[in-house]
Amino acid sequence: MRTQWTNWAGTATATPHSVAAPRDVEEIAETVRGAERDGRTVRPLGSGHSFTDIAATSGVAIDLTGWSGIIEADPASGLVTVRSGTTLRRLNAELDRLGLAMANLGDIDAQTLSGAISTGTHGTGSRLGGLATQVEALELVLADGTVARCSATERPDLFAAARIGLGALGVITAITLRCVPSFVLAADEHAEPLDGVLARIDELAEDNDHFEFYWFPYGRNALVKRNNRLPAGSEPKPLGPMRHYFEYEVMENKVFGLLCRLGRAVRPLVRPLNRLSSSALSTRSYSDHSHRVFTTNRQVRFVESEFAVPRETLHEVLSELRARVPRLREPVMFPVEVRVAAADDIWLSTAHGRDSAYIAIHQYLGMPYREYFDLFESVVGAVGGRPHWGKLHTLDAATLATRYPRFEDFRRIRAELDPAGRFANPYLERVLGPSRPVSSS
Ligand SMILES: Cc1cc2nc3c(=O)[nH]c(=O)nc-3n(C[C@H](O)[C@H](O)[C@H](O)COP(=O)(O)OP(=O)(O)OC[C@H]3O[C@@H](n4cnc5c(N)ncnc54)[C@H](O)[C@@H]3O)c2cc1C
């Protein structure tokens, strides 16, 4: 029976022809071969947390929920091989027990590891890259049903492409991560005037292991988050359970959700509510195991677009947004989030070859966002911004080719590995073009 698939934000839906739930590599390979025999496309599903229709398929969907957990781990080297359907939440818990951790994480832990790396999911830190930079080796089932392995020394081109492969090159079956000894992060969060933050942005990014800030578009303050690693052996001093519940569950989810519903119902209230949210930002200092500081629970649903821009253009981009967002016809309920990352060498990484600042904009679900997102796309486009592959954007292959120096190399590998477009879907057709052999560059 056909079942409908919908993503977390409800911005993408699809009706797969069928859903396979393989439980080992041979069953994954057989699912791909079966799709080839039947002339259908095939796509692995993560946990549906991309805002784009990147995972959507009308062919065979592969649900990897039953292919989860750590396969092997070497605490001495930090190398850990993980089944591709493992969620970050499960991975963090299993790494905890081994005395290991991911060096950097994004805001939530609901994603699968394979979904997260395939779209270039990242956290923040000027000396660190996104999750895919922590990958040492990959195993994939290719379009012809064979199993391939790649690393920096084994099929290095495939490795450079497949770490952020958009699900276009094969079904990842296993991911070897280089983890670090588990560590405690000291979190310091408080509101500061946005002008001061922008004036010291380089210093703040460089002086903190993980620096980010949120800015409500009609407020003058930014919520600045400085997360820094404590020496090995430090004891965590987390928030008490009552305070944790009050701040994260009550204020950030229930009360903020209520304000959003109010603003959506009575639009003239959005600006004052936005300023109220900005001034109510809480100050807190605590420390905890790294993944408990990096990730939080997000219940209020929203739509999001995020672009990576060269870090030196951040000031210019934010100044432009500050001037133009208040003039939009429809008000904005959610804050802008700013993070940083080090340059890396992955072909379709948004931070490929340049130290980057990530600017993410959001709007409460059900409120108009097109005018805002279009404005944003034109502002970041002027400085060569690259869209997060899992967040809303309208760019196509022709434009993206001008923003990624190794774009044609990626397309060449895709055409070699999947000439028939077995893993194709409408999103990939838009951002990569049709899968067919292209001349080597
Ligand atoms: C509330 C929220 C918070 C977020 N926070 C952040 C953040 O802090 N930082 C950030 O960068 N992003 C963030 N994101 C975006 C999110 O991390 C990415 O969109 C991520 O890809 C979602 O992972 P998923 O498991 O849900 O994958 P899906 O969205 O289900 O799939 C993503 C892609 O991965 C492919 N895929 C899945 N499994 C495999 C496999 N085994 N082999 C090959 N391809 C595969 C799919 O086919 C698809 O192309 C957030 C999203 C939400 C909704």
UniProtKB/TrEMBL annotation:
Top-rank taxon, per record: Bacteria
GO cellular component, one term: membrane
Signal peptide as annotated in the record: none
Pathway: Cofactor biosynthesis; L-ascorbate biosynthesis
The keyword Acyltransferase is annotated on this UniProt entry: no
Pfam family of the protein (one): FAD_binding_4
SUPFAM superfamilies attached to this UniProt entry: FAD-binding/transporter-associated domain-like
Gene Ontology molecular function, alphabetical: D-arabinono-1,4-lactone oxidase activity; FAD binding; L-gulono-1,4-lactone dehydrogenase activity
Domain FAD-binding PCMH-type: 12-182
Keywords noted in UniProt: Ascorbate biosynthesis, Oxidoreductase
GO biological process terms, semicolon-separated: L-ascorbic acid biosynthetic process
Family per record: Belongs to the oxygen-dependent FAD-linked oxidoreductase family.
Protein name per the record: FAD-binding protein
Species annotation: Solihabitans fulvus
